[in-house]
Every structure is written in C-alpha cells, then in structure tokens.
Design goal:
Blueprint (H helix, E strand, L loop, with lengths): L1 H20 L7 H4 L4 H13 L4 H14 L25 H19 L4 H8 L4 H13 L4
Helix pairs in contact: 1-3, 3-4, 3-5, 4-5, 4-7, 6-7
Amino acid sequence: MKRTALSICLALAATSAVANAGSVPQEARAIAATMPAIEVEILDTVGREYGLTGDQLTLLFAIRKIENGRPGVEMGVGSDTPGHRARRYAGDFERSLRLQARWAAGTIQKRYTGDIAAFARRYCPPNWNSWTRMARFFMSRKES
C-alpha cells in the first residue's frame, strides 16, 4: 500500500513540475522539467525579478542542479563560509532557496558574460573546470 501511494505522489509531483516548466522560457524548460514544481516556481520568479533571460535564466536553473545543496546552501552560495548571510534560513526550504537564488541571480547578472568557464572561476573557484563541464551539460539540454 505504501509503495502505491508513494508512486502516485511521485507521479503527481513529476506532472506538476512538467506543467510548471511550461511557464518557464524555452531555454530553461529541459532543466525545469526535472525539478520539483516549487523549485521551478521560485527560480523562475527570482530570475524574472533580476531580469534574467535566455542563457542567464538557464544558468540559474543549471546552478540549482549542479550545486544541489543541502538546506541553507541549495545554490552553493556560502557553502565554504559558515557565517555567510545567504545561509540564514536553513530550516525553511522555500525561504532559503529564494535567498540562495537571489544571490546566484545577482552574481549571474553582474558576472556572466556568456563565457561559462570565466563565470565558473568566479562561482566555484576550487572546482571550476568540473563545474564548467556540468554547466555546459545542463545548459545544452533541450526540451524533448
């Protein structure tokens, strides 16, 4: 019984994520379709708040997939700095993701020029080469 209920919940969540991905600009839909609906909604809203479009918005979604951080560092912001201001809401997923996404969006807005490797050196200096490969992978995915 539990397995069936879990299967139904997972199917509904996947359907909801795909439905929400439809409101996301074309460039980011392939990534959005693999995420929970609440994450898609938060990232899309924050991206729009910061005026991100095209590759910038796709990069915001890719960062969430690449970093896949635990509560408080969902987007990797401040992951190496315990007292970082972007780590304030670890106990409140939505609030934390929104704050993390805003920090990431601000960095994209200020630092992303279309050169993923240059951005990666800034966003993830210790592992920039690996991070670059992952970003290119996610950003090249197309909606099926």
